[in-house]
Amino acid sequence: MAVIERYREWYEHERDSNDKMIGMLEGVPADRRDDARYARALTLAGHLPACRENWLDMIRHGETDLVDWWPQDVTLADLRPRYGRLESAWTEYLGSLTDEELVKDFEFKDGGHWWRWNVEGQVAQLNGHAPYHRGQIAQIVDSLGGETVATDYVEWAMPRDPRWGGPIER
Predict the structure, then answer these.
(1) What's the CA angle centered on 159, arms 153 and 162, to 5 degrees?
(2) pTM of the entire structure?
(3) Contacts of 43 (CB under 8 A, 6+ apart)
(4) On the CB side of 95, how many CA atoms lie within 13 Å of its CA?
(5) Distances 30 to 23, 26, 76, 142, 144 between C-alpha atoms, Å
(6) Mean pLDDT, rounded, for 8-34
(7) Which one, of 170, 129, 169, 135, lies nearest residue 152 by Cα?
(8) What gap in Å lies between CA 120 and CA 117, rounded to an integer?
(9) Cβ neighbours of residue 86 closer than 8 Å, sequence gap 6 or more
């Protein structure tokens, strides 16, 4: 299996997890959505696409007009359309990426300085970044009386694996 195939698979898991995360936010009782914790959860949910949008832009172009990394004006109604656009862009990008391109360096400007990193390093970092913040969001949703949903990779991957047949009798 090509290395890029693994990242494509992991991104499909991320897309599924994003859908579940937004569903968790939608499930918070309406009378709890004025709570400051809910606003924090929306900010975290807005931070994830901002990171993906900015890093895709920096990988492709170095630096252009980046979006706010920590948007404070996120609304629940904005999330599904934004994630839809973002996920289309990343699916297209990963679909065209090759193993040879993964190891290439790219340069970007951040904090007034120029930096160099390889594409695979950033793609891998983003795969670890999203679960961290989705976990924070799940904790907030739980604290506000909403229902949480498992977004662990194993919950997503095992039913898709033809070798998985459920529990083994011993």
Answers:
(1) 120
(2) 0.90
(3) 70, 71, 72, 74
(4) 7
(5) 14, 9, 12, 14, 10
(6) 97
(7) 135
(8) 9
(9) 49, 52, 53
**How is residue 46 written in tokens?**
């807005």
Q: What is the pLDDT of residue 33?
A: 97
Q: Is the dihedral of CA 42, 146, 11, 95 positive or negative?
A: negative
Tell me the backbone φ, ψ of residue 10, rounded to 5 degrees: -65, -35
Residue 73 is classified by DSSP as -
| Residues 82-140 pLDDT 10s | 999 999 999 999 999 999 999 999 998 877 888 899 999 999 999 899 999 999 999 99
User: Quick one: which of 78, 75, 69 has its CA closest to 51?
Assistant: 69
Are 106 and 62 within 8 A, CB to CB? yes
Structural domains of the chain, with CATH? 3-160 (1.20.120)
